[in-house]
Structures are given as structure tokens and as C-alpha cells.
Amino acid sequence: MCYNVPLYFERKNIKISDIFYLTRQNPHTIITFSSGESIATTIPIKELMLYLPEEDFLNISKGVVLRKNQIVHISDEGLYTMTDGAVFQGRKRNLSQHKQIRKALGLNVQNYSEPSEDSSLQLFNSCSFLNDMPLAFCIIEYHLQNHI
Hints:
5 helices
């Protein structure tokens, strides 16, 4: 089947610069945007990748495509962490490839640390999606997470 991806993007008012990542949840491809919104389509990821600029996106496994400049960390085990906190598992068959990608993207493993309870303020400051939430919601959410 042949899909007209440019026409689909035009009809749905999708800007490539707004795409954060693509994930496959059969039978749909979920397109997640930097705003946090997402839409589902039946267009396969392979078809969408033909339209997306290769220099901006990275296919880390079957069914997962990430915007390169939104990746903040790649672990030695192939876990990709995005700026919104989402974590995706990359291909497991060649773990050294993830280290090469990390180096190519200029990600330094020494400068990255997993968030701890002591760094909750750091996490709050680095999560842009919290900027649009009411402060009371953020405080309640933080309080509940630490006491569950």
C-alpha cells in the first residue's frame, strides 16, 4: 500500500519540527509531539521515516523512532532517555552501537545522573511539561510519589 505522507501531514497540520518521537502500537503508529499531544495513524513507521529528515531522527528499534536532539541519555544497556522523561529500549543485539550513537550525538555519560529524591528540584527544573501545570498539582503529585 502506498501512503501519501506529505498530504497526511498537511491535512493534520503536522509540522516535522514538532514531532518528538514515533512509536508503534499495532495496528497504529503513535506520533508524539513536543507539546505532549499525540495522534494515532495507520501509516507504518517505515513510510513515515521516508518523509522525515534522516539527520534529525534515529530509528533505535523496530517500532521506535526518536528526534535526535531530544535524547538526553543513552545507557550502556541501550535505554534512551528523552527530555520529557520517556525511556525507550534500543536494539539489544548490538549494545556497542548505542555507545557509538551516544558518542556521535555528543552525550557524555559522566555528566548524566539518574534522578534521585535529593535531586527532585533538578528534575522539576528540567521537565518542561511541568511548566504548563498549576503549581498545586505539581506539589501534590510530588508529595504522592514520595509517600507511595
